[in-house]
Write a structure and sequence with these properties.
The chain has about 210 residues and is mostly helical. The chain folds into two domains: about 140 residues, no CATH class; about 45 residues, Single Sheet (N-terminal domain of TfIIb). The protein is built from six helices and three strands; from the N terminus they run ααααααβββ. α2 packs antiparallel against α5. The termini are far apart.
């Protein structure tokens, strides 16, 4: 029984860590590992609740003074900023010291109730993470989908550049005006014997009326 509880606790921690590492490459893998961690912690939670029940010990209510005291430590750790003269809240050793008065208590029921409180806090945070990952996957897709979309966008950009290059290559160079020697522009005839046909007209028109056939 003790070995099973140790394995459940280890599975919860390891899957959270592995899910965090997988987040950069696969949101599906991260989501799956977080759900495995959640299930492992649920198994551990039931074992501690069974221990209290079988030994006829009181389980702390959610809003009991003991449970609130444990939860206040977690709320302090979750704060975004801490005074510079206080211990680093990200240090695991600091975490243990903050909970040591309960986790090292001589009464096993106090230890069990404390762990139950901590599991509830961890499960609450995991549930929030799962919901966030599900929303992100629905709106943004997985890592593979994002790569495919980026590749399609890049291919479209390259195709547009190729077409522009081909257009520049096939476009005839503008000649100089036979009358003034200035640059000419490609124009389309609106009237005359060949309406709709293109011709070179002086860019200084109407000051200069020089023309050339295309």
């Amino acid at each position: 029984m003790a070995d099973q509880m140790v394995q459940a606790a280890r599975s919860g921690r390891q899957n959270i860590a592995e899910g965090s590492r997988a987040s950069a490459t696969s949101s599906q893998t991260e989501l799956r590992l977080i759900n495995v961690a959640r299930a492992s912690l649920d198994e551990l939670l039931l074992d501690y609740e069974d221990y209290l029940r079988q030994h006829r010990q009181r389980q702390w209510a959610k809003d009991s003074p003991e449970a609130l005291a444990v939860r206040r430590v977690g709320q302090w750790l979750a704060k975004e900023s801490h005074p510079a003269d206080q211990a680093n809240p990200t240090d695991p050793a600091v975490h243990w010291k903050l909970y040591a008065r309960w986790l090292e208590h001589a009464d096993p029921a106090v230890v069990a109730n404390t762990v139950i409180c901590l599991i509830h806090q961890a499960n609450y945070l995991l549930d929030q993470q799962v919901r966030g990952l599900e929303r992100q996957f629905v709106t943004q897709g997985g890592y593979s989908e994002q790569l495919a979309a980026a590749r399609l966008q890049e291919r479209k950009r390259q195709s547009g550049n190729d077409q522009a290059d081909q257009s520049d290559q096939t476009k005839p160079a503008a000649p100089n005006c036979p009358l003034c020697g200035g640059p000419m522009a490609l124009r389309t005839a609106k009237k005359g014997p060949r309406p709709g046909s293109q011709f070179w007209g002086c860019a200084k028109y109407p000051a200069c009326k020089g023309t050339k056939p295309v």
